[in-house]
Write a structure and sequence with these properties.
This protein is of the alpha/beta class. The chain has two domains: about 280 residues, 3-Layer(aba) Sandwich (Aminopeptidase), CATH 3.40.630.10; about 150 residues, Alpha-Beta Plaits (2-Layer Sandwich), CATH 3.30.70. It has a six-stranded mixed sheet with strand order 1-2-6-3-7-17, sandwiched between helices. Strand 8 and strand 9 form a beta hairpin. Helix 3 crosses helix 5, helix 9 runs antiparallel to helix 10 and helix 10 crosses helix 11. The chain binds zinc ion (ZN).
């Protein structure tokens, strides 16, 4: 997403934005304190530190006026999920609004990092540390905003609920528990997720567009295996596991899934077309008007950045076969990774692939759970509130609905019936994107923007009747 937006850097220069922040120096300092402490808990998989981070956050919230009754920490194995309820007066008559983040991080090996990954440090306008971006920034800005609103005496017209998971980067067991087992207890209408969406900045720092992530493609990997009696390679037989697998792979290579569109991708291409311009921009505009336009589809599918937004993709990613150089292979296996357009189940995509290959002797296996997650409708109340919040900082900035190929907690939230919108408060250059990688960093300048973003959204949505 960020990358695709960088094409539009020239246009961004036309945008004039920026306004005084509502977040005070004290708010910023408090957020940095929470973020730095959160980073110091090494919450990678298997270390048992997520419950400690949750307990720390609970302590901060209680100091700020939240009660034991408002806070639930749900232990699950070595990790935990967390729910924090900011009680409303119920005057809107509506269910609550969820605000999501995850407390765990991807592993970071200190010997590979230039700086100690679990000690947050500031250098040249950046905070460095594992999780400063993904997703402890979401955790700390949401908690800091809850504390500020409480201190201001704000009483929302409906409950605002923090929904924090503890293994987003690994098994998503806490995500599943919160989505399915605690669904009724959490009792919300929809979720705003800090772990996706946000604004992309041009190299000169001006914002290009703000993305609302309203859908995720389903991630599903399939293993296809051909078996064979094998034998000695000096006495070859006509049928061969490696040749059979290669034939099947060539058929998958030649196959293209049909073009698909939804409300989000149509608005994405319609919005981005005039901004991107040129042949690609014209193809976006044409495809948004008519998804049957073969020429436009061809141009978009030739681009690794846009092909995923035009339909399901499946691609070979791994290969293994044979066991000795002088033996006929007894088995050959390929892995096919698919990113499935919302609305189609993994099993249906598997059936399509089987049909394409047309070899009943091949054994197929779905790896992982292949949870399908529906696209979330672009609700006016959410889009309007996010637009108002973004425009308070940067008037007129383009708002771009987005379908990601990724996988966040949002896939289970959506599958459980909660529409979910990735709307992070991050304003960042693509060149600063080091999430999951070495030397993860956060531009210090985005802290007040994110605090304003959440404060604006919670007071706006939380005041509506
Ligand atoms: Zn994340």
């Amino acid at each position: 997403m960020y990358k695709s937006l960088m094409h539009t850097a020239a246009v961004a220069a036309l945008l004039i934005g920026g306004s005084a922040h509502a977040a005070s120096d004290a708010d910023i300092a408090k957020t940095r304190e929470i973020l730095g402490t959160a980073v110091s808990f090494e919450t990678s998989k298997g270390l048992g530190n997520v419950p400690k981070l949750a307990a720390y956050l609970a302590g901060e919230l209680k100091k700020g006026g939240f009660t034991d009754e408002d806070i639930a920490i749900i232990p699950m194995g070595e990790t935990a999920g967390m729910i924090v309820r900011y009680k409303g007066d119920g005057s809107s008559g509506k269910k609550g609004i969820g605000f999501a983040a995850h407390m765990d991080v991807v592993e970071a090996d200190p010997k590979d990092w230039e700086r100690e990954p679990f000690t947050m440090v500031e250098e040249d306008g950046y905070l460095f540390g594992r999780g400063v971006l993904d997703c402890k920034f979401g955790v700390s800005t949401l908690v800091a905003t809850f504390l500020k609103l409480k201190a201001e005496g704000f009483v929302p017209t409906r409950d605002l609920v923090l929904v924090f998971t503890g293994d987003e980067e690994s098994g998503m067991e806490t995500t599943k528990a919160l989505s399915y087992d605690y669904h009724d207890k959490i009792d919300i209408e929809y979720i705003l997720n800090s772990d996706a969406g946000g604004a992309a900045l041009a190299p000169d720092g001006t914002p290009v567009a703000y993305a609302i992530q309203a859908a995720e493609k389903t991630y599903a990997s399939f293993e296809m295996t051909v078996t064979n009696p094998g034998g000695h390679s000096s006495r070859p037989r006509k049928d061969n596991a490696i040749y059979d697998l290669a034939t099947a792979l060539k058929k998958i290579e030649a196959f293209e899934f049909p073009a698909e569109v939804n409300e989000i991708t149509t608005r994405y291409f319609a919005t981005l077309g005039p901004i991107v311009g040129g042949e690609t921009g014209a193809a976006m505009t044409a495809f948004a008007k008519n998804p049957k336009d073969k020429k436009a589809l061809g141009i978009l599918r030739a681009s690794p950045e846009y092909v995923g937004t035009t339909g399901t993709t499946c691609i070979a990613t791994m290969l293994k076969g044979g066991h000795a150089e002088n033996a006929l292979p007894q088995a050959a296996t390929a892995t096919i990774n698919c990113r499935i357009f919302p609305g189609t189940k993994a099993e249906e995509t598997l059936a399509t692939l089987k049909g394409v290959v047309g070899n009943d002797a091949i054994e197929w296996k779905l790896l992982g759970d292949g949870t399908a997650s529906p696209a979330s409708p672009l609700r006016d109340d959410v889009v309007d509130a996010v637009t108002a919040s973004v425009h308070a900082a940067y008037p007129g900035l383009t708002i771009l609905p987005q379908m990601e190929s990724g996988g966040t907690d949002g896939k289970h939230y959506r599958a459980s019936g909660w529409p979910t919108y990735g709307i992070s408060g991050i304003y960042m250059k693509m060149s600063d994107m080091f999430a999951h990688g070495l030397n993860e960093r956060l531009p210090v300048a985005t802290i007040p923007l994110a605090l304003d973003h959440w404060h604006h959204l919670m007071t706006n949505l939380g005041s509506q009747k």
